[in-house]
């Protein structure tokens, strides 16, 4: 095996091992969500943009896209995980202000949601 092919194989194996260790969203998850509109840096290193369709989740990998559905009105959006949180007890997701607006719960501040992986 050439040095180049060996490096490719080693990279592929390390990527596979890393990917297998990440948590995934195998089934829908339901719970409470809130929104936030800070202008600080997120855990992924991005600047928080309240106008972006993003969210904070405790364990899902950065870059994961999920579909979030508001249980109260049936509205749904697709967001990308770019931060860690929420840190409020009982919440499973923090959404950007833009995502919360499209889901229709800006005024309430929090709502019941269900989230599922986007393939």
Give structural notes.
With 119 residues, this protein is an alpha/beta fold. The protein has one domain: Beta Barrel (Barwin-like endoglucanases). The protein has two helices and six strands. The chain has helices at residues 3-21, 97-103; strands at 29-36, 54-56, 65-70, 76-83, 91-96, 110-117. It has a six-stranded mixed β-barrel with strand order 1-5-2-4-3-6. A hairpin with a 5-residue loop joins strand 3 (65-70) and strand 4. The longest helix has 19 residues, at 3-21. The chain starts with a helix and ends with a strand. The model is unreliable at 14-22 (pLDDT under 50).
Instruction: Return Rg in Å.
Output: 17 Å
pLDDT < 50 runs, ≥5 residues: 14-22
- Approximately how much helix is present in the residues? 10-25%
**Count of individual helical segments:** 2
H/E series, N to C?
A: HEEEEEHE
Number of domains: 1
CATH superfamily: RlpA-like domain
The CATH topology: Barwin-like endoglucanases
Question: Could you give the order of strands across the largest sheet?
Answer: 1-5-2-4-3-6
Summarize the entry for a quick read.
Helix content is 22%, strand content 33%.
